[in-house]
Amino acid sequence: MLTLKYLFWILLFIIFYTYVGYGILLYILVKLKRIFKWGKKQEINSAYEPDVTLFIAAYNEKDYVASKMKNSLELEYPKDKLKIVWVTDGSDDGTPELLKQYKEATVHHLDARNGKIGAMNRGMEFVKTPIIVFSDANTMLGKESIRRIVNLFSIPTVGCVSGEKRIINKESDVASGAGEGLYWKYESTLKKWDAELYSVVGAAGELFAIRTELYRHVEKDTLLDDFIISLRVAQDGYTIQYDPEAYAIETASANVKEELKRKIRISAGGIQSVVRLNSLLNIFKYGTLSFQYISHRVLRWTLTPLCLLILIPVSFALACNEGIFNFGLYSTLFWLQILFYIAALTGWFLENRSTRVKILFVPYYFFIMNLSVVLGFFRYMKNSQSVNWERAKRAS
Q1: Structural domain includes residue 317
Q2: How far is C-alpha 36 from the geometric centre of its chain's CA atoms?
Q3: Distance, CA of 258 to chain centre
Q4: What mean pLDDT is predicted for residues 277-292?
């Protein structure tokens, strides 16, 4: 039983650290950095205005062309310095033809579909500006997003800038909306602290930018292009910074089934990324970056979901030994787990029904997040995840 107790507390510590403890530790480290003024604070030059390319890799996005172009043309940045480039490889729904109506946009098209990363690798050949901003066709950018991102590049050590992904929340949101919105709010806070401590660990594909000279062609089977591209910039000694006021807005997934489909792909890509970026695990070489990377990303995609799974039988065995209905320490913690999973099950039951109890959607979304890692692991091992992105259906 002593061994089980040790195992129980190790598992619980890993789970707590991954989802709560790292945030607490990060907050403390940032506070200490502010108090003791660790590191040299570099000033942003708001007058910095280089030429910029807004790069949109799109596949069959006809329904979003008009709104995306309207949004792009309204961005607050000198019109003569903002180039809008679309790469529409494989699109057969009229997207390239529709885009050709816009003289402000440059369109590069191939009939062959080679996945998003194939389009990005090909499209980079046409980019001549020092800064490139990547964005998705179905996301709308805040008016000042480009300017705010570019301002951060006035600092020479910044190689990548990530914007914020914002989820439109409605009162009628199903579990995917309530859970995803809360998740991204928490992620946004962690990213702000990560950036202040040293560097963000990964960028959101909906809106991120890099110095064009730092782009390296990515392997054709890459699933998380934004993550690989941004972390390789960090590996080269630059930092990834973050501005929550440079944001991309999109609606939540239409339902949890669609969100699960999206997250399984992300999880498979996360595991692939951990393998490909294995050198980043060397804390002696990368220091703070490795600490942030392992704490914020690697644990979520590898060890922690397994810990959650193992914790159930371990805590059950300890609860039985203690007296499962005596409500001692271990039995209480076991029943709290059961209560959490009952809440997740109830959230599943209420999904898409007329009853809206959003607090139950949070444990349900958390469960779906970790389930997706398990399913994503098997998909990665079977090498059955297509590089061609199948966009999840979004709420209307």
Answers
A1: yes
A2: 31
A3: 16
A4: 97
DSSP structural state of residue 282? -
Query: What span, in angstroms and rounded, lies between the C-alpha atoms of 380 and 365?
Result: 22
Distance CA 155, CA 153 (A): 5
Look at residues 315, 311, 293, 308 and name the one whose alpha carbon lies nearest to residue 369.
308
Tokens at 92, concatenated = 């057969």
Placement of tokens 């990368």 in the chain: 286
State mean pLDDT over 201-213: 94
What is the distance in angstroms between the CA of the first residue and the CA of the last residue of the chain?
A: 53
Q: What confidence score (pLDDT) does residue 51 get? A: 98
Question: CA distances (Å), 53 to each of 80, 151, 208, in order?
Answer: 11, 15, 12
Are 228 and 218 contacting, i.e. CB atoms less than 8 angstroms apart? yes
Question: Rounded to the nearest 5 degrees, what angle is found at the Cα of 296, between the Cα atoms of 250 and 180?
Answer: 25
Q: What is the mean predicted confidence (pLDDT) over 371-389?
A: 80
Q: How far apart are CA 386 and CA 265, in angstroms?
A: 9
Distance between CA atoms of 64 and 123, rounded to whole angstroms? 20
pLDDT band at 248 (very low <50, low <70, confident <90, very high): very high
Q: pLDDT, tens digit, for every residue of 101-133?
A: 999 999 999 999 888 899 999 999 999 999 999
Residues 200, 141 share a domain? yes
Cα–Cα distance between 312 and 4 in angstroms, integer? 12
Highest mean pLDDT pick, 235-239, 248-252, 263-267: 235-239
Determine the Cα–Cα distance for residues 267 and 80; give it in Å rounded to an integer. Answer: 40
Q: Which domain holds residue 317?
A: 301-382
* Predicted confidence (pLDDT) at residue 62 exceeds the cutoff of 90: yes
Q: How far apart are CA 379 and CA 373, in angstroms?
A: 10
Cα separation, 28 vs 33, whole angstroms: 9
Q: Which residue carries 């007329």 as its tokens?
A: 354
321 lies in the same domain as 178: no
Report the C-alpha gap between 61 and 87 in whole angstroms: 11
Q: Domain count of the chain? A: 2
pTM of the predicted model as reported, rounded to 2 decimal places: 0.88
Confidence at residue 172, expressed as pLDDT on a 0 to 100 scale: 46
Q: In this structure, is residue 85 part of a structural domain? A: yes
285 HSE (CA, 13 A, CB side): 10
Question: In the predicted model, is pLDDT for residue 320 greater than 90?
Answer: yes
